[in-house]
Design a protein that fits this description.
With 414 residues, the protein is an alpha+beta fold. The strands form 4 sheets. Strands 5, 6, 13, 14, 15, 16, 17 and 18 form an 8-stranded mixed sheet that branches. Strands 8-2-1-12-20-19 form a 6-stranded mixed sheet. It is built from 11 helices and 20 strands. Strand 19 and strand 20 form a beta hairpin. The longest helix is centred in the C-terminal third of the chain and has 25 residues. The chain folds into 3 domains: 215 residues, FAD/NAD(P)-binding domain (3-Layer(bba) Sandwich), CATH 3.50.50.60; 92 residues, D-Amino Acid Oxidase, Chain A, domain 2 (2-Layer Sandwich), CATH 3.30.9; 65 residues, no CATH class. Pfam families: FAD_binding_3. This is FAD-binding domain-containing protein. It comes from Nonomuraea recticatena. InterPro entries: FAD-bd, FAD/NAD-bd_sf, PheA/TfdB_FAD_monoxygenase.
């Protein structure tokens, strides 16, 4: 077993959280090994939407240019087409006005941006190891990381390990960090191209029948499509014909021209479906010698769309701690644990409201959306949860995270 020179930090997982951390730490003078299980970055159908507050985090991390070079596309308007919304009620929400100097959210090919971040980290001095398999992390004052590549077996003894393997929580499970999981629905996603009839600067969402849909343009006729649907339908888009059934699901009365711009697009990547799980750590997302970041440290339901922004915030916060002091003990990360716990609590609450509002189906759910929409039109404060998609959770008014607010929003009587 080969034992290279011990690095300061080993990062397990070369996604948005791990690769951005590698860039920040190497730029700050630390020695880093970045382990990624893929031999090349490929479209694995991950989140591809970064909120304005996440864009600000990317700027602070020094990786904003990776998004631009990787094909990031600014989305300027948000349209809600829904069976509970009449044609004359559909309005375009200006998404560029929430954080001055940042603009609207970005939609981008996840794998392309990750590859550019990994290249930036390597150019700054990080050792990038692709095709790393059988990764095992043993926590401790001097943690141990073992892994294999086609060249053989390796062992590293860094000062610290960052676990950034995503929702699989590979590192977290190995070091004994447990999660409280819940699931409300299932989701699926796929890339398409040749979607020329879709407004290029407009993202859309809505609910009709037994699907909640999302459309995120990426420019030049490309877009990432998502569906959320009941757990009872978890097999609907699997197996032979699954792609065709997925595309056909966008033939909706509420969409302009019955969704023709979407249904006639060309599939341009794999279709993936998954249980939309919310995971909250049952303790701090760290132990001796190991800190978790990104989805591995806990995540809200994917319907909220804040996973990548959270990953960037985690990366920036933890990197700032590592670069500010030589004290890397668990106690040094108390500010990260406190801020992340507060943030995840708010995001999880907000996601539960959005899921109940948009990913429940049938006549009662339609009437609920119609009633809530009228309430929001009368009282702007009722729209507060929607801010979570745009601004950082700490900047959303506190009343939007109370059970009283949820009860007022969803009560069945006028």
């Amino acid at each position: 077993m080969t034992r290279p020179e011990p690095p300061d930090v080993v990062i397990v997982g070369g996604g948005i959280a791990g690769a951005s951390a590698a860039c920040k730490l190497t730029a700050g003078g630390l020695s880093v090994v970045l382990l990624e299980k893929q031999d090349t970055y490929q479209d694995l159908v991950r989140g591809e939407w970064l909120a304005p507050w996440g864009i600000r985090e990317a700027q602070r991390l020094g990786v904003y240019d990776c998004f631009s070079a990787g094909g990031a596309w600014e989305i300027r308007e948000w349209m809600t087409w829904d069976e509970a919304v009449t044609d004359d009620e559909v309005e375009a929400v200006d998404m560029t006005r929430f954080i001055p100097g940042v603009g609207g959210p970005m939609s981008f090919p996840h794998h392309a941006v990750c590859a550019l971040m990994a290249e930036q980290a390597a150019a700054s001095g990080a050792r990038l190891v692709m095709n790393a398999s059988k990764i095992v992390v043993v926590p401790g004052e001097r943690p141990v990381v073992t892994y294999r590549t086609p060249e053989g077996a390796f062992e590293l003894r860094p000062r610290l390990v960052l676990g950034a393997t995503g929702r699989g929580c590979t590192v977290g499970r190995q070091v004994g960090i447990t999660m409280r999981n819940s699931m409300h629905h299932w989701g699926g996603g796929m890339m398409v191209e040749d979607m020329a009839g879709w407004p290029p600067d407009v993202q859309a969402m809505g609910t009709e029948g037994d699907v909640m849909f999302m459309v995120f343009p990426q420019g030049y006729g490309r877009a990432r499509l998502y569906l959320n649907f009941p757990t009872a339908n978890k097999h609907r888009y699997r197996g032979p014909g699954g792609v065709e059934r997925f595309m056909a699901a966008f033939e909706l009365e509420c969409l302009p021209d019955r969704g023709k711009a979407v249904t006639e697009a060309t599939p341009a990547g794999p279709l993936s479906v998954w249980p939309s799980v919310s995971s909250v750590p049952e303790g701090p997302p760290l132990t001796e010698g190991v800190v978790l970041i990104g989805d591995e440290a806990g995540n809200a339901d994917t319907v909220l769309g804040t996973g990548l922004s959270c990953a960037m915030r985690d990366s920036r916060t933890v990197c700032d701690i590592l670069l500010a002091s030589s004290d890397w003990s668990p106690a040094a990360f108390a500010p990260y644990v406190e801020e992340r716990g507060f943030r995840l609590e708010r995001l999880d609450f907000g996601a539960s409201i959005i899921s109940r509002l948009h990913v429940e189906f049938g006549p009662a759910a339609v009437e609920r959306r119609r009633r809530v929409r009228k309430l929001m039109a009368r009282n702007f404060a009722a729209q507060v949860t929607g801010l979570l998609n745009m601004v950082a959770p700490e900047d959303v008014p506190e009343f939007g995270f109370s059970e009283f607010f949820a009860e007022r929003l969803f009560r069945e009587t006028a």
